[in-house]
Amino acid sequence: MSIDQFQRYGVGVSASAISAQSGTVVFSNSNSVSFGMSAIEPGSYALTMSVNANGGLAISAGSTLISTGDVVISNSNGFVFGMNGQTITAAIQNMSYWNNGVTWDAFSIVGSSSASNFSVQRAFFWTPINATRADLVVSMNAASSVTGQYTMSLGIYTLVNSTQASLASSVTQVVSWVSGSSTNQSSAYGGQSGPRWQSLSLGTWGITPGDYMFGVMFSQVSQISLTLVGSASGNFGAVSLTGGGNISDVLLFGALSVGTPSLPGSFAASQINNTQLVTNFAGTGGQPFIQLAGTY
Amino acid sequence: MGQERQLPRIGINVAAGTLTALSGTLTISSANGISWGMDSAYNVTAALPSAGIASISAGTTLASSGQVVFSNSNGISFGASGQTLTAQLATLSFWCNNLWDSAENGPQGPFTPYDIYFQYASFPLNINATRAILVASGSAGTTGTINLQVGFYTISGSTASLATLASSTATVEPISDNQGGVSWKSIASTFAITPGPYLIGIACTGQVSSNGNSILDFNLIGGVIRGVSNNVMAIGGDDNGAYFGDGYYRSQFSTGLPSSVHVTDVVKTIPLTASYSFGTPATTFNNGIAGGGQPFLMLIGS
Question: What is the ipTM for the molecules in this complex?
Answer without folding.
Answer: 0.72
